[in-house]
Amino acid sequence: MNITASMVKDLRTQTGAGMMDCKKALVEAEGDIAKAVDILREKGLSQAAKKASRVAAEGAVGSAVSEDGKTGTILEVNCETDFVGTNEDFRNLAASIADQILAVNPADVEALLDSEIDGKKVRDLVTEAVAKIGENISVRRFVRYESAEGKVYSYIHGGGKIGVLVEMIGADDELGKDIAMQVAAANPSYLDRTQVSQAEIDHEKEVLAVEARNEGKPENIIEKMVIGRINKYYKEVCLVDQEFIKDGDLTISKLLKSKNASVVRFARYQLGEGIEKKQDDLAAEVAKQLNQ
Questions:
Q1: Which residues pair with 58 in a beta bridge?
Q2: Contact, 272 vs 78, CB < 8 A?
Q3: Residue 151 CA to chain centroid, in angstroms?
Q4: Total Cβ atoms within 10 A of residue 21
Q5: pLDDT per residue over 180-226, tens digit each?
Q6: Quick check: 279 pLDDT over 60?
């Protein structure tokens, strides 16, 4: 298989490994990037155990929570430039759409766009904003929580770069904000160990065992090393196992227990994650404009 420069660049972005190491891993993996990531990890060449998402789209992640704290939402609205992402009209549009999500509980983005605000469909409001602002605008995704027994808390970081929604039982506003900030900063994939699939753990054990062998460790201690590293893995990916960002002596589990509170679920949106924005060559774009 032909290994392209773009494939090497993507693998390097995900792992932090050197260009030649990335190319060799891709050749060995026959172009399978996920397999190449494992190969680099097994050889101790990957600087990132978790795959990094390409963050390139502009816009904002916004939120809204009802006055009683029972219902909340976060949503991502995309545009073409970071300049428009901070535009007041753009931010007002995102805020009104967030309020609409709270009010009508749409099933998905299409249902949201078809719903009406003051007699006008949301999709028409977006179209009007596109005409006024001069850039393409799209509502990409949203999540809405409604809590029967507890409350919902939100946190927006970096002016809309990251948004978090958390449903908790037994929490006060301070703890709710702290947990939401924890999710924003530490980016857990799961609430607790029960949510991690056995297949994922088996895969992780296999990679870690090969990595340990490649480090020259004897077989009789590899199993103990793998167990230790799996526990470290849990501390990275499970919210309740993580160290509290405000106090490294506390885990989130201990913090929640001390407050007699629990986390029901959480969602974390990072602006543009999973979207690779087209990178135009400025010189070529200028030349194109001049030739028109």
A1: 79
A2: yes
A3: 22
A4: 19
A5: 999 999 999 999 999 999 999 999 899 889 988 888 888 888 988 88
A6: no
Sequence-ordered list of residues with C-beta below 8 angstroms from that of 108, at least 6 positions apart, any chain: none
Phi-psi map region of 58: left, alpha, beta (phi>0 left; psi -120 to 50 alpha): beta
pTM exceeding 0.90: no
Three-state DSSP at 170 gives: coil
Give percent above pLDDT 70 in the chain: 90
Residue 103 backbone dihedrals phi, psi, to 5 degrees: -75, -40
Q: How far is CA 19 from CA 27, 45, 273, in A?
A: 12, 11, 23
More confident residue, 263 or 23: 263
- With tokens 């030349």, the residue in question is 287
Residue 27: which residues within 8 A CB-CB, separation 6 or more? 3
Residue-wise pLDDT tens digits, 54-71:
333 799 999 999 999 999
Helix (H) or strand (E) holding 103: helix 88-104
Let me know how many helices (H) and strands (E) the chain has, helices first: 12, 10
Buried b (16+ CB within 10 A) or exposed e, 244-262: beeeeebbbbebbeebebb
In order of start, what are the domains of the chain with their CATH numbers? 1-52 (1.10.8.10), 58-190+261-270 (3.30.479.20)
Determine how β-strand 151-157 pairs with β-strand 162-169: antiparallel
- Residue-wise pLDDT for 78-127, tens only, equals 998 888 888 899 999 999 999 999 999 999 999 999 999 999 999 999 99
DSSP bridge partners of 268: 164
Whether 101 and 141 have beta carbons less than 8 Å apart is answered as no
- Residue 288 has a CB neighbour count (10 Å cut-off) of 11
